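// run 5 | inverse folding | seed 20
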């Protein structure tokens, strides 16, 4: 009768226990990092945004330095240009956006007319089941009035915090542009051998080149989508086509989720502008056609397979960062994921997760 070796059984038990312990530690670490990012978002988010802006503006900074402009002045010029362009774009779009917000009651009125019969039936049922109560109406009005002041206070605090974070991002971006290279040189000095220093510099330039290429290509594609959306909206006679073109450019930085939001907005526009169902659906259908061409043909062809990622994981990733950092988290989630993927690819880290992120079964090493 065969006998089992006690030592092998003990070894397998210890191996299983060690694996369970490592898995539990990894899960706890992930949860700790998630909640750290969530509760310290007012501190971490400006640093991340400023680092992204400085990284994307580094080619322009090097160009200005090559034409003999001092680095502090070059960084200041880049920040001023970015502020002027952003401010001009905001001023250009503010009035059209405000006008559409004022037209929201019209959307409610048209919806109310469409469901007038259903609403009348529901009102009759409500009057039978729940008769009018003046005291309840008065208490409701009082509650709404008492909640107005706290709402205005929260709005004022949120605006003040947003302005403070905006100023923080501007200051941090300037210091990243001016002193980011110094930090890299100090890291290189800490390396012991010349070969390690050369490898670090080479890897840094490769990572920066790939990230800059991705951001440049995606920005150009999104701008082209915005221009195409502007042209189509103009041909269809939609009011304020510039607004919809800019929204198409910005929201497309959040794949799948951003175009979905814009499609809903354009459906509301079609509902306000037209009376027939065909014309109502024509506006969002035209944008969806443009988005399908961009997402399924243009972007995969231009970027190649290295930057192609699993749509399910992309959407989950955006929802996670949207929960952690709000709208800004949704917009920077994909650039952040691509940057992490590029860094891990060049450093040879997380090969399993890189394979999991791919949209197909091809391994990262063969891309």
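// decoded
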């Amino acid at each position: 009768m065969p006998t089992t070796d006690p030592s092998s059984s003990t070894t397998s038990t210890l191996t299983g226990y060690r694996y369970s312990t490592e898995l539990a530690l990894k899960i706890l670490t992930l949860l700790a990092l998630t909640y750290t990012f969530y509760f310290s978002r007012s501190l971490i988010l400006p640093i991340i945004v400023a680092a992204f802006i400085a990284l994307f503006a580094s080619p322009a900074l090097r160009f200005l330095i090559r034409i003999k402009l001092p680095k502090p002045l070059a960084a200041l010029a880049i920040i001023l240009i970015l502020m002027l362009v952003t401010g001009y774009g905001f001023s250009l779009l503010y009035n059209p956006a405000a006008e559409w917000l004022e037209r929201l009651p019209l959307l409610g009125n048209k919806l109310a007319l469409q469901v007038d019969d259903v609403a009348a039936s529901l009102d009759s049922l409500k009057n039978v089941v729940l008769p009018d109560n003046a005291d309840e109406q008065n208490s409701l009005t009082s509650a709404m009035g008492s909640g107005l002041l706290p709402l205005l206070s929260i709005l004022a605090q949120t605006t003040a915090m947003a302005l403070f974070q905006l100023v923080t991002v501007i200051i941090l971006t300037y210091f990243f542009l001016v002193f980011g290279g110094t930090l890299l040189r100090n890291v290189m000095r800490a390396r012991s051998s010349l070969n390690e220093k050369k490898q670090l510099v080479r890897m840094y330039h490769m990572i920066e080149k790939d990230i800059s290429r991705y951001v440049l290509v995606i920005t150009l594609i999104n701008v082209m989508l915005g221009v195409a959306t502007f042209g189509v909206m103009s041909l269809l006679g939609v009011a304020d086509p510039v607004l919809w073109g800019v929204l198409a450019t910005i929201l497309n930085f959040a794949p799948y989720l951003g175009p979905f939001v814009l499609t809903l907005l354009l459906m509301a526009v079609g509902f306000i502008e037209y009376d027939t169902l065909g014309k109502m659906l024509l506006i969002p259908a035209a944008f969806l056609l443009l988005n399908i061409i961009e997402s399924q043909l243009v972007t995969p062809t231009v970027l190649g397979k290295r930057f192609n990622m699993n749509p399910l994981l992309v959407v989950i990733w955006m929802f996670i960062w949207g929960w952690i950092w709000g709208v800004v988290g949704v917009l920077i989630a994909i650039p952040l994921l691509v940057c992490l993927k590029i860094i891990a690819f060049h450093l040879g880290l997380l090969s399993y997760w890189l394979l999991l992120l791919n949209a197909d079964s091809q391994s990262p090493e063969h891309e």
